[in-house]
Amino acid sequence: MTSALTLPSGGLLASSRPETTTGYQPLPFELDHLLALRVPGLIETRRHIHSHPELSGEEFETAALVHRELSLAGLKPRLLPKGNGVICDIDGRPDGPVIALRADIDALPLDDPKDVPYRSTVEGVCHACGHDVHTSVMLGVGMLLAQLADIGQLDGRVRLIFQPAEEILPCGSLEVIEAGGLEDVVQIFALHCDPNLPVGKVGLRVGPITAAADNVTVRLTGPGGHTARPHLTVDLVDALGRLVTEVPTLISRRVPANSGLLLVFGHASAGTRYNVIPSEACAAGTLRVMDRDTWDEAPKIVAQVVRDVLAPTGATVDLEYLRGRPPVTNDARAIGVLTAATAAALGPDGIAETPQSMGGEDFSWYLEHVPGALARLGVGRSGPNVDLHRASFDVDERAIEAGVRLMVQTALRALAAAR
E strands within 290-359? Predict the structure, then answer.
């Protein structure tokens, strides 16, 4: 499906380093100089990954690229059992703690309309959520921390996780956990691109920062028939209309208003002819909710309301409720580490408050096992910003250096705090 992700030869791109932020602290042991040398190559890597995106579960060439780059840095990465993700430990002092840093690597099923040299070369696949940036940032972090480990200045072990399948269900984070990705880990951190923040800003929040997200599919069946005689059959178009208009409203009345429960159908289909009542209909959508308690109750509530609404229609109902991911709930101590790291990496002005999003993120499954936090990395461009999951989404590439600097500082501070 994709061409091999072999990095092109030749000169590196010109550096896109952000302007120096007042109040930031230099990285230890002259890593700033090494980072400056690495930034053009990291930008080139990001553009190459952007040009060669791979769908969730199919990230084999992306994983091979990550494995190759980490090996060239002197590390010993290992592929996940399916070969579409990578785990790599950077070994420092053997008596130190283990801190994990996670990047997701999959793309979305969208065409890429952008007029840029690094436009996607794969029809119908596009990095419209910034995972190419996450991957490039984490590669840069690995290269720098490997240097610290080589000179005996890494106070423990840092585990880099390059995770597949963040965008689909079942979640790729569960594959990583099953493969031992959290073994011995005491804290875990991640970044996610945020086009609403400029480069140099990092969005931080204690507690829930995303919503829970599940998939809901309802299939309706009936005998079918003539539109002249709906009383002799089951009118599935009418039933489908009731489903997509009444159910979302009614389930919101079964939960506290501040739970933020939201059911939105993104697909609905029934019939092919104007004068034929169809025998099949279907609607599919996502249910999102902001608090964990309501998420736990959501499947039961949805099932009851769907039955109540559709019972008078006579339609046969098949409800598929696919559990997705709980909210990402940031640990207060982990946010303390990220706050200090942001001030050190980007200056105190880099710290920004961020609201809870209705988006879902499978980083939440890691936090079911160990404490940690997700931060929002500013990637906003000049002019109107394009939201995540739109095909024309792009980033200010100066965010790559900012992200590397932040995550290196995060790893060092987390190791120090956990000793």
Answer: 316-325, 329-330, 351-353
Pairing of strands 185-198, 98-104: parallel
Pairing of β 280-289 and β 212-221: antiparallel
pTM equals 0.91
102 three-state secondary structure:
strand
Contact present, 136 and 48 (Cβ < 8 Å): no
Residue found by looking up tokens 């159908």 in the block: 265
CA separation for the pair 229, 100 (Å, rounded): 63
What are the helix (H) ranges across 151-232?
Answer: 172-178
**What's the rounded Cα separation, in Å, for the pair 333 and 261?**
28
Measure the CA dihedral 139/140/142/148, to 10°.
Answer: 170
**What stretch of H or E contains 295?**
helix 292-310
pLDDT per position as a tens digit, 244-282: 999 999 999 999 999 999 999 999 999 999 999 999 999
Question: C-alpha distances in angstroms, 304 versus 120, 265, 313?
Answer: 44, 17, 15
Model confidence over 400-411: pLDDT tens digits?
Answer: 999 999 999 999
Q: Which amino acid is at 241?
A: G
- What sections of 91-211 are H helices per DSSP? 131-150, 172-178
Contacts of 235 (CB under 8 A, 6+ apart): 222, 277, 313
Query: CA distances (Å), 55 to each of 109, 122, 138, 328, 369, in order?
Result: 7, 10, 20, 23, 27
| Structural tokens at position 344 | 């050190």
Task: Give 313's strand partners.
Answer: none
Separation in Å, CA 142 to CA 13, 54, 113, 175: 20, 22, 32, 22
**What single letter denotes the amino acid at residue 305?**
V
